[in-house]
Design a protein that fits this description.
- This protein has a domain of about 210 residues: Ribbon (Umud Fragment, subunit A), CATH 2.10.109.10.
- Helices cover about 20% and strands about 20% of the residues.
- A seven-stranded antiparallel beta sheet has the order 1-2-14-3-4-12-13. A four-stranded antiparallel beta sheet has the order 7-6-5-11.
- The chain has seven helices and 14 strands.
- By secondary structure, it is α+β, with helices and mostly antiparallel strands.
- β6 and β7 form a beta hairpin.
- α1 packs across α2.
Length: about 325
């Protein structure tokens, strides 16, 4: 039996060496053939080479929101954001008088930066600073303590009515008036003085004489050609009749229309805590001196809007 098996094995080996094709055929019958599969990125990006199984759909908890509820929630968010902005960042004001003409005209609608003069210490990266001479500020009217009867007008209520003026004196400054010149700490302010006529008809001032601007004259002030110096109450009540000193946390303010402005000369200083902010720019200006058609407000809006003033910076 052993010899026979050995002889059979020897015979098979001999046949395979003489006929290689038969050996390959014999071996190939034992191999498993695999078909090529198309390439897929899911094997690369899918977990463990398998496609990502879809997540089960989750249903929102509670009853579905109605369209009215969505509108209500959007309106509440809008109102909250508007109140926050008006309280801490900006405020819109309208200018009804001509005390700042022609820097600011009657009918100008201003945006006021309330953040820049925020009280207290501020971080160095925040756009905040102290009030400077020459700033145009909006503040709550402090009232006329020299002539209280002047505050009985319904449009001139203390703390309720907003004023807009230019800062002339800072805390500690010594101020006196010499004709058209404002003397601060012994030196005349470098103001560009223009002669103009105020017709009191809500129209801008009519310029009579505008001399060339000198170095350092950063803003314009307007005087009538027949200007006459007068005795201002503040120098009588707060000083020696000629000169005053601005108290701490207070400011001396004046209008640019020097012949038609009720300002610190007549009712006193502006306390720091009554300052609302700094006037930034005109977002809309309406010419109240122009004729308007009450039956066609759209026409009045288009033709009476001062488009050239819209978007101008206040300085």
């Amino acid at each position: 039996m052993n010899l026979t098996a050995q002889s059979n094995v020897s015979r098979i080996i001999f046949e395979m060496s003489n006929n290689p094709a038969s050996g390959q055929a014999t071996v190939s019958t034992t191999e498993t053939k695999t078909e090529p599969k198309p390439f897929s990125f899911s094997k690369i990006f899918g977990r463990n080479g398998h496609g990502k199984s879809p997540e089960p759909e989750t249903k929102p908890k509670g009853p579905p929101k109605s369209i009215w509820r969505e509108y209500f929630e959007s309106a509440v968010v809008t109102v909250v954001m508007a109140l926050f902005g008006m309280t801490f960042i900006v405020q819109a004001v309208k200018v009804p008088t001509g005390s700042m003409q022609n820097t600011i005209t009657i009918g100008d609608h201003l945006l006021v930066n309330k953040f820049i003069f925020a009280p207290g210490d501020s971080a160095p990266f925040l756009p905040q600073r102290e009030i400077r001479r020459g700033d145009i500020i909006v503040f709550k009217y402090p009232g006329n303590k020299y002539e209280p009867k002047r505050d009985e007008r319904p449009d001139n209520k203390p703390i309720v009515t907003n004023y807009v003026k230019r800062v002339i004196g800072l805390p500690g400054d010594r101020i006196r008036m010499e004709g058209r010149d404002v003397i601060v700490n012994g030196k005349a302010l470098t103001e560009h003085q223009i002669e103009a006529i105020d017709r009191n008809d809500k129209a801008p001032l009519n310029i009579i004489k505008d001399p060339p601007r000198k170095p350092g004259e950063l803003y314009d002030v307007y005087y009538s050609p027949d200007f006459v110096e007068e005795e201002y109450p503040i120098f009588r009540y707060e000083g020696d009749g000629k000169e005053i000193t601005v108290p701490p946390a207070s400011y001396f303010v004046m209008g640019d229309n020097r012949n038609n402005s009720e300002d610190s000369r007549y009712w006193g200083f502006v306390p720091r805590d009554l300052v609302i902010g700094r006037a930034m720019f005109v977002y809309w200006s309406y010419d109240e001196s122009a004729t308007s058609d009450d039956n066609n407000p759209l026409k009045a809006f288009l033709f009476n809007t001062r488009w050239s003033r819209t978007g101008t910076m206040v300085k």
